[in-house]
């Protein structure tokens, strides 16, 4: 079938319609013709597989996994990059500028023109070095989004080429010196430009090729190595131009012979489509297809990449419980933004624009949740203290491509045997251009073939609710004496099966019929690979992904290193790290701080240059001379540390102001989401003049002045609804929040001046539960629902946990969660209209409970003071609208210190000794339960904390007020 006939285009919508001649229930015939396998096409049609993008703080916590949980870290490296069929063949590093360009800030490798480059600050370069230990052929590329100020000042004048080149060159040479590899590809242009800077791309490549200066002492290259370094440097290839939705580089390459010769790979983002402007022979009609196939005026093929795309959104094992299918059924591992959606993007971006490489932004989410673009990764790595890693089922879906072909880059002699994509045996009829939708059941398949024509694999994606039959015929191939085809499948579990029962498993072995067709009916909401390879006895193909492990809360000793749930600390950091040994980097071992470019433990930077100085103090270095750089999310410098489940604690830190021009230091607590110091629910800010301000989020609620000083010790204590601020141990402000944020991490912040931070402590508070012990997502299978609920995951908000919510407006709808502990919080963005009946272990204990109007990730209702043990809590919607995002539960084993139960005793005195016979049968049981609970807790009970005392007291008073005397008609 010709390229022109592969799809019918609906011009008005830009969508790809189902190909003519294929009704929804017709079998799909696929002919894999050996004459279409183009072994001579070594760039455009070779299947490179998958890549990972490291940028914007997305890899920050990986260095902590390596130091704290090396076994889990190196297992991750093997899973993603290792084996005969690596899942990932490329690490792309977006160079940082200390500014927030998405989810956070990556450090600048050169903050000033005089500073020596330090590539160790950027975790992406080290990730690539580690990946190369299991996959030496791994490719590495770089690009920039924004730039350090010393470069930007000149660039803005139109004279900054030399500065830009110097930043790139010194960084690349430092990477070579530290990690032993030369970056393979450079995009000299700006990430997601809409107007490719063709002149600079040309200038940059020519400058690289003609550069002979490698002896400068700044580079630190020994004389004996300079020749090898120069050779490697001159081999750097060019990728351009990482556009987002605009597709201008392809036509530019076809119309400019010099540019065509310079650019080795054309990449663009977030669309599966090629351009289709003008006549068929014009440079604007299918330009990327022409580049990849070599069917262009130059007769040469070029690499074409999907150079930034998303992974599946949320956790697949949660989102399978959605109600987005027909009649409220689940879409399984499919649906918009699902694992099957990503698979369809791979297929469609190849079928429609011949892209043979897909780079995830990110593949690994190693930053704290709550930052922009949370929950869109293949692997979640956010708790380095526990080693918890979540390997999403989308990895199995991606392995349906990579484990049934030899992927990567062909060598110079064309002997590596990289499999070719086969345009004539690949097609996509699903709708959409980025978030694609396969519910129409249209054909979606991609064929990869051995260049020697001995084997092939056809990957079929069926993200619809009906089966689809495929008939595949092999022609002009050398399949040998045994033409058996294996069928491997990934889909959600059937009823009664374990959740991963149908992930990447062999379902059938089939042989061609008398007409030469292999016939197989692909199940709904599945991905299937039909391959002539013999994988049935290959242990690596059957290998299951590692288990996630327990997501334990961060609770350490006074050194911040070892877990300790019995002392008065949740975390501490003196930024000295004397207890740390050497850390493995690639194939070498380095001192702890040197291995990570002096970056502090467990901190994720949102803006600013946060680095430990030689004196063991954490400094924010981004000052007035560095600050005026472009940023997507512009904020003053701030960094985040800790656990989102921390609740009642006191955070304190020493701050200092070494910058004579001024300064500001800030300490915040209970941060759940956002990327500014004002996103910590309660934050204290102070300058060297002693002027302080206490904020609830960004609103000042108290201010004052202490004596001017070079430094202070700041502290913020949050216990229940009361929050107190301290300067040098003296209370300066106290606030009783009527609608408190109850959980979150610690934030440090500064102005654009060098500012010091030391001796960070996060301490427990006697009589209060320090943290939630567990979290349940609304889509977790342990949470059961009755009544009408809309359970949505597609196109979910990044500020909702795992991008999913369950919503009801139907009276009588309910949900139930079993847990062990003393309380539970209902989390979700709500308008406060919902009224609930709350049942514990089958008994109504709170009728007509009001909910709070809350932002996302906050508690709309809290239940505390239950007897410590196993419970089942049921929430019944009486009226209004309830959005359930997640639930957190607290454990009775985590409360230290004395708890004052006097309020309960006073409440018992106040209610006296009512007689059940005096009150109606409808009103008495709730009071009786509240009374019994209060009596059980009046002298204290296991797990009871101060918040529990407050709630037991309040429930008793409310139940007493709701008693109705017999014969009394007043309600």
- State the shape: globular
Largest sheet: 8 strands, parallel, barrel
Q: State the distance separating the first and last CA atoms.
A: 78 Å
Cα-based radius of gyration, to the nearest Å: 30 Å
Number of helices: 18
By DSSP, the count of extended strands is 54
How helical, in percent, are the residues? 10-25%
Q: From the structure provided, what is the oligomeric state, counting identical versus distinct chains?
A: single chain
Largest beta sheet: strand ordering: 4-5-6-7-8-9-10-11
Could you name the ranges where pLDDT drops below 50 across 5 or more consecutive residues? 1-21
- Strand residue percentage: 25-35%
Mean pLDDT value: 95
Structural class designation = alpha+beta
Keywords: Lipid degradation, Lipid metabolism, Signal, Sphingolipid metabolism
Domain Glycosyl hydrolase family 59 catalytic: 47-403
EC number: 3.2.1.46
Pfam families: Glyco_hydro_59 (PF02057)
